Every structure is written in C-alpha cells, then in structure tokens.
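Supplementary Methods. Inverse-folding protocol.

Structures were first reduced to a discrete structure-token string of length 341. This string, shown here, constituted the complete conditioning input.
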C-alpha cells in the first residue's frame, strides 16, 4: 500500500475493464478516474505545473488561472491547494454544479462566463477573459492547456506506456478529443512503436475540433468550439463523431451493469463500440481510454428531469422509461379500518 504526502502523488494507471459482456465486442477500457482529482486531467495538470515551476514561471505569489469545463479545473485546484498557490478557474454554465462546488471546497475561485462565442460555445469567451486577467496583473499565470506541450507530453510518458505494457499486441486505440493532449501524446508514442496501431479519435457532434459544423453541446469534457492548437491530424487514422443522446445511453447502459462513468467516457465508449460493430473485430485487440468517473454527473446525465428537459422522453430506452414510471410517487392508498372486537 503506497504512503503519500501530496494528493497528486497517487494515480492508479493500470486498471482496465473488459466491456465485452456489456457491449458484445472486444473492448478494454482504461480507467483514468482513480486519483484524488477524479479524472485523467491530473496528469496534464501535474506536468504543466511542474514544468512552469522548473522554468521559473510560477512563484510563491503567483495566481494560476486556467480555462476549463471542469476536470482540469478540479485537478489544478487540488494541486494548487497542495502546493500553496491560489487558483482561479474560468468556466461556463455547462460546468456541473458538483464540479464547481468541489473546486471551491479546495479553496479555488470559480468565474463563470455566460456569453457564447462566435461558434456557439463558450471557449472563446473564456479565453478572452483569461487574457484580460493576465494583462491586468502580472501575478496571474495562465498555463494554457490548449497550447501547452506539457499537456501531450504527460500522456506520452504515462498513459501510452501503461497501455503498451498491458497490451503488447494492441491494434486500435480509441481516444476522446478535447484539447487533444491525450490524443497527441498517445498517438505520438504509438507512431514509434514496434507494430502499427490504428488511432481513432472520438469527438462530439457539434464540436469543430476536426472541422465539423458547430452545434449545441450540453455535456462538458470532450469537443471544442475551436480547432485545438495541439492537434496534428497526420497522427490520426480516423475520426468518429458521437451524438450526445448516444453518450447518455451508453453511460446508462454501463451504469446498469454497475460501472458509473462520466460523460466523456460515455462518448468514447459509444464511438468505439460503433466503430467495432462496423469492422471485423474477431481478432482485434482494442482499447479505449475512460477519462472520468460518473459521480460528478449525477445531477445531469444520470438525472431524469435534466435529461427530459433537454432531450425529451426519446432519450430513454424502453426499460429506462419503465423504471422511471415505477419510481414516481405512488398514489396514496385508502386506509381500511378493521372493526374492533
């Protein structure tokens, strides 16, 4: 059992779930949520902070500022609290309430932008606010996950090598795309590997990361309202886009088997199972990366009222509709008085 003195010193990176019994196709899921930050973003956050410290950019009086839809903000909140830095997370209204409360519990300040950018997202507005802060006070240090090479280097050094260790005959790797840090780190590593690995990027419908049409996206995590500066498509063999409805159904399907994963994981698994269903996968070794767990989504993708308000009843599969109806408050039954003897 490890003994640690700093929360970022613990990060379980060797846990995989075999999803074949759930989805009927050969797919191993690399679980990245088992650390004190609860997501894969701890790796990038730690690499970027340590790099800034080595370069002398971060000083005791520095205030770290970052734009984040949630998970990186939590990771930086945790690391900042551990190291004694102040941290300001600039996010938007799609950030889960539990995530915002978690950052605040760790001592961070959270600023929420409300005005969408020209692509209908909030990323441009968030970045503009961060830049104005940095221009107003030298103490603000923007790590810039969107351009910081430490973002992809973290996964080149850790995530990819962990997968390679457990799956030396890997054929295809499915990776969700937000900032493209995980994607580029793993893709660069496996480009140099002893055997060819097909890199399939998974993105959300409505994201413009790979040049798609902008659209409404309500689940934070994957997808971008601008092209990720770190992205080099020459390392990507294929891109799969996933509708949010399929993300939600996939999350619920795994939850009904006892695995509670987050929205980013639901998107990756949905894209992976769709790809595998369209290919001869009998002899394929396939791995997908699960960026997060599901506790922070209890008031969104696992909450029936939130789902119905945004997507309507059609979001539910038949068995879910039955369960929803059965859990409604029953009509009070009439009491029958028995005559006293």
């Amino acid at each position: 059992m490890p003994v640690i003195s700093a929360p970022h010193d613990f990060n379980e990176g060797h846990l995989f779930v075999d999803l074949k019994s759930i989805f009927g196709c050969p797919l191993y899921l690399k679980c990245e949520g088992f650390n004190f930050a609860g997501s894969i973003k701890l790796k990038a956050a730690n690499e970027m902070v340590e790099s800034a410290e080595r370069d002398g950019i971060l000083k005791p009086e520095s205030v770290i500022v970052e734009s984040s839809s949630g998970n990186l903000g939590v990771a930086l909140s945790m690391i900042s609290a551990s190291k004694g830095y102040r941290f300001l997370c600039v996010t938007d209204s799609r950030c889960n309430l539990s995530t915002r409360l978690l950052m605040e519990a760790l001592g961070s300040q959270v600023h929420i932008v409300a005005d969408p950018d020209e692509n209908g997202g909030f990323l441009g507005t968030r970045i503009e606010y961060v830049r104005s802060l940095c221009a107003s006070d030298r103490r603000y240090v923007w790590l810039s996950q969107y351009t910081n090479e430490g973002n992809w280097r973290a996964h080149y050094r850790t995530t990819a090598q962990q997968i390679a260790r457990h799956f030396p005959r890997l054929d295809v790797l499915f990776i969700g795309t937000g900032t493209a840090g995980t994607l580029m780190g793993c893709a660069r590593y496996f480009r140099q590997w002893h055997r060819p690995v097909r890199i399939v990027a998974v993105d959300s419908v409505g994201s413009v990361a790979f040049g798609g049409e902008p659209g409404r996206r309500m689940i934070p995590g994957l997808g971008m309202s601008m092209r990720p500066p770190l992205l080099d498509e020459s390392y990507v063999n294929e891109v799969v886009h996933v509708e949010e409805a399929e993300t939600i159904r996939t999350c619920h399907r795994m939850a009904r088997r006892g695995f509670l994963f987050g929205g980013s994981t639901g998107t990756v698994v949905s894209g992976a199972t769709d790809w595998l269903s369209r290919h001869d996968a009998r002899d394929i070794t396939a791995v997908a990366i699960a960026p997060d767990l599901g506790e922070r989504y209890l008031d969104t993708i696992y909450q029936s009222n939130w789902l119905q308000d945004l997507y309507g009843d059609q979001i539910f599969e038949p068995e879910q509709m039955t369960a929803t109806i059965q859990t409604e408050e029953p009509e009070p039954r009439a009491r029958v008085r028995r005559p006293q003897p």
